[in-house]
Amino acid sequence: MMQSLSPRTPRENQLPPELIIRNITRTIGDKILWSNISFSVRRGETIFIRGPSGVGKTLLLRSLACLDPIQTGGSITFEDKTPDQITIPKWRALITYVFQQRIAFRGTPSELYYTAQRFSAQRGRPRGDLPAIIHELGLEQAVLNQPWSELSGGQAQRVQIAVAVALCPSILLLDEPTSSLDVESARRVERVLKNCGAGLIWVSHDPQQPARVGGRVLDLPGGFESLVSTPPASPAVAQPSSLPKSSKKSTVRRQLIPSDDNED
Fold first, then answer.
1. By three-state DSSP, how is residue 16 classified?
2. Pairing state of beta strands 31-41 and 199-203?
3. pLDDT digit string (tens) for 55-108?
């Protein structure tokens, strides 16, 4: 039987929250999207963000990734440190945003992955086995050496997720990560993310997805939390570190910032 990506012990499940969001508010002009939102998440936990279109779910993720400012009165901390105390590049290495829209990366996924590892904020950090993750997502290893421009939308979305998981952030910010995928590919993504060991803050419009993955749900704009029963861990996802390492070096992630704002 295959192991999960990151099994957790009972002691680890009792650790205090790592990412803490306190009383954050978002306005656009005179419109208040949501106010005084507070929640927390740590490694291995999942919290889904739900709400009607235009409520600011993407803006919430962008704020947590320090791509949009936290407005006056609120705060976000990771292990009791603010983004400025950690530095923004290191914050984004710890708390990584996976965009919903396709990013116009240059080169190949392998080139992007190696480039990301050379950034000072990424040096000395643990790494997952990118080829193994690619395999678990139902992709051929060849996609790592194909130009991004030649990948289909579904391939590009899965490869972006694989790269983010392989860079081993503490928290993943996921903006509709299965939106362009067929059912089988979406289930593979759910299993990989559920077992990757990172804390997940996951925007989803799929009403059944929280029940499949488990965790908590935060409903915007009110900020009310509810608990979803957690399904048993799937044995279908292999632990990348337990699989044979590829003879080639793995590759991917520079966090590029789209210029347009999305209120969703």
1. coil
2. unpaired
3. 999 999 999 999 998 877 899 999 999 999 999 999 999 999 999 877 878 899
> How far, in Å, are 65, 106, 180, 221 from residue 36 at the CA level?
18, 39, 32, 10
d(CA 55, CA 159): 28
Q: Phi first, then psi: what are they for 162, rounded to 5°?
A: -60, -45
CA distances from 21 to 55, 63, 168 (A): 18, 10, 21
CB within 8 Å of 47: residues ≥ 6 apart: 39, 41, 199, 200, 201, 202, 215, 216, 217, 218, 225
What is the CA 92 to chain-centroid distance, rounded?
Answer: 11
- Report the alpha-carbon distance of residue 177 to residue 187 in Å, rounded: 11
Looking at residue 8, its pLDDT comes to 38
What is the Cα–Cα distance from 111 to 254, expressed in whole angstroms? 10
CATH of 16-207+214-242, one of 3.40.50.12780, 3.30.565.10, 3.40.50.300, 3.10.20.30: 3.40.50.300
**The pTM of the whole model exceeds 0.85:** no
